[in-house]
Amino acid sequence: MTALDTAFAASGVLAVVGGLLAVTTRHVVHAALWLVVALLGVAGALLVLGAELVALVLVLVYVGAVVVLVLFALMLTRAPVGPDLAHTVGPWRRLGSGLLGLASAGLLATVLVPLADGTVQRADVGSQQVAGQLFGTWVWPFELLSLLLLAALVGALAVARRPDAGAPSRRRGAS
Amino acid sequence: MIHTLGPVLLASLLVGLGVTGIAGRRNAVLVLVGVELVLSGALVLLVATQAAGADRWAAGSVLPLFVVTIAAAEVVVALAVVLAVFRQRGSIDLDARSDAEPGA
Fold it and tell me: What stretch or stretches form a coiled coil here (chain A) (predicted)?
């Protein structure tokens, strides 16, 4: 077991514990904050695997933007400060979801573990190489992604807009 | 030197935890937490293929960037839908009947 393996195990344990608490805690705000811990653990694991650009983007986008967005949505939907008693699930549902998660984890592990054969030398792909490939080989998917982000922005505005916000004035103007 | 067993186990555990979160939550916003965990499991697996030296065109670094971008767009649209539903029905309970009276 090398130092890299130890570092990976540490960040992996952090990610799994954070994820476990994020899906089991009954405080809704705590769930979003435990997700931050889990994602930081994942970012550490990616850093150990040698993908520092992906790890930084993960922290920037997931922790910086997505979790803040989730927290805003929780506040806008009037999440309670204490335990969320309005959305409790019964013990059978909890047991079923745990079994479903265990089954999917076991299925993935049985498929993937035979493919993981032995230790490998860590491949160091530098940011310069990634940038060259991103704007060379992958440039069309990259441009399509910018269109997707624009569509998501406009679509989110259109969906979340108050439907009667501009209607009375329009109706007044028409009549 | 790094053993490839670690990333594989971490990815399957994260996906399992995410599926647990998706199946066991009634709050619509917290379902998204499970979705994020599943996607981060996919990220770990993609980067692990790069660390194993089996990628061309730096795909192990570029595809995770694409996955992160698509996940951000997905979360934005999903939260907009959740807010619209909350405004119309006053609740984000996923177990509530869909044909119930608005606000009931």
Answer: none
